[in-house]
């Protein structure tokens, strides 16, 4: 090429060989660059075009602003293998600071050639003014981008989800303040995190098997019910679906077959207005472990079971079949049956500064000091003294040259590393610290517990701050107080197998705090019997965690229980006179005292948390009349992991189990919730079906 | 490569005892007082509550900047000479060395001297660095700024000395006046060229919200400004030295040059 180029320049007609040679070289260089650009550009452009993003927000592409909602993103890759990241940016307006507030959710994404993958996020769109931005990135390169306009996809009412092929419950639509929007989502798009049901008031299931759900979807549904959700299941001719393991574990009764009810009995049970001219077949129920709310003669029609704080309803008849499909009173029946709680506003929290919460109390209790004044003073004096000595004391034997520079620089050479070691790793390690305070409130009869979390990270050096964790999978959000004060930061939340949080604020000595909530597996059974001399406690700790420094608070007395080991089952009679410490109904938590290192740190945070709960309970007090409270410290369910595993951590978790006391000497083998009404229907109380691998089982393991 | 005799003289002078060493010790004492005064008084929880860390490192680096500049100014004005060290005028008038070589040696010698002062301050800087949570690159930029600034003040001192001469009182007054007049108004009027503002930006909380390298343009502006000013000052010194040598040559017709100082 070069030789040829020279020849061409030599044949140039202008006769200026040098100039032509330079031009020729430039042309060749230009051609090569152009070729390189052409070679490089198409793959990039093709890579960008080869990735498609499709998104479904909420249920049936409808969500409720201000509530957590699932977002299903499907990425299709038509190009080569892709390894990158899928990011969803949720933007809200920070009015106080006049700037958009961006929360990013990220997941690792790997796609083979010509493949497709769906990933689900649980996001909190606060408003409608900003679209959701979805990006696929590989390194710093953006391969695809999509924006989801939220203005056309929202509903202001609570949602009622109907999982059915052909049921029509549109008559329940109501656009009033406490109204409902009925949606018919595809079961495969149900949330994988229980918080995705935040906007959902109830779920109606008819003719659909829960076996179709993924384990995480079923787990999310189960947790959602446990924390207060309502599931209504319609019976029908295809009752085999209702005997499938997952549904059988949830339902308050087991369908045994079909039974015939005549028209008169039905009209008597429902209403005389029910247009029924011939007998109707309904499910015949057995193994009832709930309350029969409606019956026709001896046949149970509606059975309800409490599951944690939620309820599962079993309607033994086909809600969309004859004669109910044409009955005007069906709307009233649904509303009576579901008994939807009124819409809740954001839970009121007494205004407190960011540094009055339990997280700050935990950090304060840790008592991390800077190296003392006296240490610094002594060090400085020693250093200056040595410098002065090296100046004042003459070096003997000055024939040799080396002692002079050694004497001159020995002091700084010695003291510089000493300063680094003494004031650095030895007394004041540099780096990031994680702090977490958790309140675990077990739900009765469920094997689950609500986890309220305050999570903070801080560092004493500037730079990126990213905490990887495992254990719980909470939804995290900025503290409400920070939102009120306009001090909310931009955050990145990573999901998938290695969840993480990352703040984009790189300042040091700033506590970056988040609040979170989750429902975790925590199987703790307890019953408290109010006896003459004092309470009798029956406890089964199947949570897999040891409770330290436990107390039972009941009826104006606090009883110290000490440590309750994982797997412990015991029955203890507590006498007011000998075991009880008399406490007031308010501020009784001040009786708590530290007896171990862990609880010494947790004392102040625990007291703050209990005080908060007491304020939230209002005049009834906490635990309230007729209730006992079992409290104890345990390990935090959320632990730093991966690259953050070595971080220093301040953590503590308080278990607070509120138990309804059973009067007198009633049976001691049940959890102390509302006494369960046993209505046998047609069967004699067999062992209720239990799902393998449910939370309770896993916790017990 | 031959060692510049001015640098050799500085290196030798640094290992000897003398008043200059005591002056340097005084500066370290001043910096130690700053460390002590700005040592964090709050607990970590209070720092987190106030959302800012200790200002110890910022204060010490500022103190190092001021004291090094003052020391360089005095050294330039030849109020401080290392044991065995000769003045710039001596090198010019009493040796046949080229002015370029003299100036190069003078600048290099100043850098060596400043590095020595930084070495003396290093334990204090590290103490402050560990508790304040600064970043290494930001500290490095600050030290580079300190060196460049000290060079500029050294040359300013040299200009003072070459113009005023050996008049002690006037020199003392001029040196302090330059330090105050240049240091304070520059901080107020042109923060980009102020070492105090520079340190505050590099190590303070306001910039820390951004990645450290985001502030690099500011750092470069500062370094470029002082490098440019130092170049101008060096040209002025060169001109003054050339004039002094010319006058000497005119007076003595070149006789006796090279006898005053043993190279």
Order of helices and strands of chain B: HHHHHHHHHHH
- DSSP summary: helix tally of chain A: 13
> Number of DSSP strands of chain A?
32
Give the averaged pLDDT of chain B, no decimals: 84
Secondary structure class of chain A reads alpha+beta
CATH class of one domain in chain A, anyone? Alpha Beta
- What CATH architecture of one domain in chain A do you see? 3-Layer(aba) Sandwich
Rg of chain A: 34 Å
Query: pLDDT under 50 segments of chain A (min length 5)?
Result: 1-20, 666-701
Helical element count of chain B?
Answer: 11
Summarize the structure.
The complex is a heterodimer of chains A (701) and B (263). Chain A is of the alpha+beta class and 701 residues long. Among the domains of chain A are: 2-49, no CATH class; 53-152, Immunoglobulins (Immunoglobulin-like, Sandwich); 158-338, Rossmann fold; 373-392 and 403-426.
Keywords:
heterodimer; A: 701 residues; alpha+beta; Immunoglobulin-like; Rossmann fold; twelve-stranded mixed beta sheet; eight-stranded mixed beta sheet; 13 helices; 32 strands; 24% helix; disordered N terminus; B: 263 residues; mainly alpha; 11 helices; elongated; disordered C terminus
Q: Any overview of this molecule?
A:
The complex is a heterodimer of chains A (701) and B (263). Helices cover 24% and strands 34% of the residues of chain A. With 701 residues, chain A is α+β, with helices and mostly antiparallel strands. Chain B is mostly helical and 263 residues long. Helices cover 76% and strands 0% of the residues of chain B. Chain B has eleven helices and no strands. The longest helix of chain B has 37 residues, at 216-252. The model of chain B is unreliable at 207-213 and 256-263 (pLDDT under 50). Chains A and B meet through α7, α8 and α9 of A and α2, α3 and α6 of B.
């Amino acid at each position: 090429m070069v030789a040829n180029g020279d020849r061409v320049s030599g044949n140039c007609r202008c006769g200026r060989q040098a100039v032509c040679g330079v031009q020729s070289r430039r042309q060749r260089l230009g051609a090569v660059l152009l070729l390189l650009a052409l070679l490089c550009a198409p793959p990039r452009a093709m890579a960008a075009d080869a990735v498609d993003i499709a998104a479904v927000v909420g249920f049936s592409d409808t969500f409720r602003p201000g509530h957590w909602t699932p977002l299903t993103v499907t990425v299709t890759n038509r190009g080569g293998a892709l390894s990158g990241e899928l990011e969803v940016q949720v933007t809200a307006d920070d009015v106080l600071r006049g700037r958009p507030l961006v929360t990013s959710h990220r997941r690792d994404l790997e796609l083979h050639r010509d493949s497709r993958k769906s990933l689900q996020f649980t996001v909190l769109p606060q408003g409608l003014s900003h679209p959701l931005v979805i990006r696929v990135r590989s390194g710093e390169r953006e391969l695809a981008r999509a924006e989801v306009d939220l203005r056309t996809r929202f509903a202001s009412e609570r949602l009622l989800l109907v999982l059915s092929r052909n049921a029509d419950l549109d008559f329940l639509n109501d656009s009033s303040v406490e109204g409902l929007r009925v949606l018919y989502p595809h079961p495969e798009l149900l949330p994988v995190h229980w918080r995705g049901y935040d906007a959902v008031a109830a779920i109606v299931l008819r003719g659909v098997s829960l076996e179709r759900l993924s384990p995480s979807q079923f787990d999310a549904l189960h947790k959602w019910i446990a924390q207060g959700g309502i599931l209504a299941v319609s019976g029908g001719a295809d009752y085999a679906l209702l005997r499938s393991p997952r549904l059988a574990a949830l339902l308050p009764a087991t369908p045994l077959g079909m039974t015939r009810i005549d028209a008169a009995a039905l009209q008597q049970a429902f209403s005389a207005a029910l247009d029924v001219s011939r007998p109707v077949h309904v499910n015949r129920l057995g193994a009832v472990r709930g309350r029969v709310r409606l019956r026709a003669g001896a046949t149970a029609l509606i059975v309800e079971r409490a599951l944690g704080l939620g309820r599962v309803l079993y309607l033994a008849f086909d809600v969309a079949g004859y004669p109910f499909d044409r009955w005007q009173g069906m709307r009233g029946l649904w509303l009576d049956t579901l008994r939807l709680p009124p819409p809740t506003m954001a839970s009121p929290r007494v205004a407190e500064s960011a540094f009055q919460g339990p997280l700050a109390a935990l950090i304060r209790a840790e008592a991390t000091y800077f190296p003392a004044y006296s240490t610094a003073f002594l060090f400085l004096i020693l250093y200056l003294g040595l410098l002065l000595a090296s100046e004042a004391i003459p070096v003997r034997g000055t024939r040799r040259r080396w002692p002079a520079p050694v004497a001159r620089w020995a002091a700084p050479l010695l003291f510089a590393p000493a300063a680094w070691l003494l004031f650095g790793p030895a007394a004041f390690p540099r780096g990031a610290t994680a702090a977490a305070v958790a309140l675990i409130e077990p739900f009765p009869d469920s094997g689950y517990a609500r986890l309220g979390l305050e999570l903070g990270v801080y560092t004493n050096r500037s730079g990126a701050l990213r905490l990887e964790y495992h254990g719980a999978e909470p939804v995290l959000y900025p503290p409400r107080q920070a939102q009120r004060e306009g001090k909310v930061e931009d955050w990145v939340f990573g999901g998938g197998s290695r969840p993480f949080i990352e703040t984009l604020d790189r300042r040091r000595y700033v506590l970056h705090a988040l609040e979170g909530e989750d429902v975790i597996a925590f199987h703790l059974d307890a019953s408290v019997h109010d006896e003459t001399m004092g309470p009798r406690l029956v406890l089964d700790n199947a949570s897999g965690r040891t409770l330290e420094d436990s107390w039972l608070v009941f009826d104006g007395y606090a009883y110290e229980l000490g440590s309750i080991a994982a797997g412990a089952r015991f029955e203890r009679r507590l006498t007011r006179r000998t075991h009880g410490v008399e406490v007031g109904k308010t501020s009784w938590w001040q009786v708590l005292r530290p007896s171990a290192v862990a609880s010494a740190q947790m004392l102040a945070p625990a007291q703050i948390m209990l005080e908060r709960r007491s304020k939230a309970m209002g005049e009834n007090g906490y635990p309230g009349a007729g209730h006992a409270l079992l409290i104890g410290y345990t390990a935090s369910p959320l632990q730093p992991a991966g690259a953050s595993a070595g971080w220093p951590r301040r953590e503590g978790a308080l278990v607070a189990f509120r138990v309804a006391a059973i009067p007198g000497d009633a049976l001691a083998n049940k959890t102390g919730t509302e006494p369960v009404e046993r209505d046998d229907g047609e069967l004699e109380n067999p062992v209720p079906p239990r799902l393998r691998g449910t939370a309770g089982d896993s916790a017990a393991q | 490569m031959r060692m510049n005799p001015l640098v050799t003289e500085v290196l030798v002078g640094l290992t000897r005892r003398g008043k200059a060493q005591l002056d340097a010790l005084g500066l370290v004492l001043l910096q130690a007082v700053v460390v002590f005064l700005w040592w964090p008084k709050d607990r970590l929880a209070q720092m987190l509550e106030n959302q800012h860390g200790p200002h110890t490192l910022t204060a010490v680096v500022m103190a190092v900047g001021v004291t090094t500049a003052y020391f360089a100014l005095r050294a330039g004005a030849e109020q401080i000479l290392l044991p065995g060290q000769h003045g710039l005028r001596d090198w010019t008038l009493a040796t046949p060395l080229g002015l370029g070589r003299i100036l190069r040696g003078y600048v290099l010698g100043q850098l060596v001297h400043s590095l020595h002062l930084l070495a003396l301050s290093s334990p204090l800087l590290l103490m402050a660095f560990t508790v304040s949570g600064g970043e290494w690159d930001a500290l490095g930029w600050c030290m580079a700024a300190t060196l460049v600034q000290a060079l500029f003040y050294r040359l300013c001192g040299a200009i003072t000395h070459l113009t005023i001469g050996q008049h002690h009182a006037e020199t003392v007054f001029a040196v302090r006046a330059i330090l105050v007049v240049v240091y304070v108004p520059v901080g107020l009027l042109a923060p980009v060229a102020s070492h105090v503002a520079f340190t505050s930006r590099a190590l303070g909380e306001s910039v820390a919200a951004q990645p450290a390298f985001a502030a690099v343009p500011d750092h470069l502006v500062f370094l470029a400004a002082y490098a440019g000013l130092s170049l101008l000052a060096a040209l002025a010194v060169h001109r003054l030295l050339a004039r002094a040598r010319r006058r000497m040559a005119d007076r003595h017709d070149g006789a006796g040059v090279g006898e005053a100082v043993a190279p």
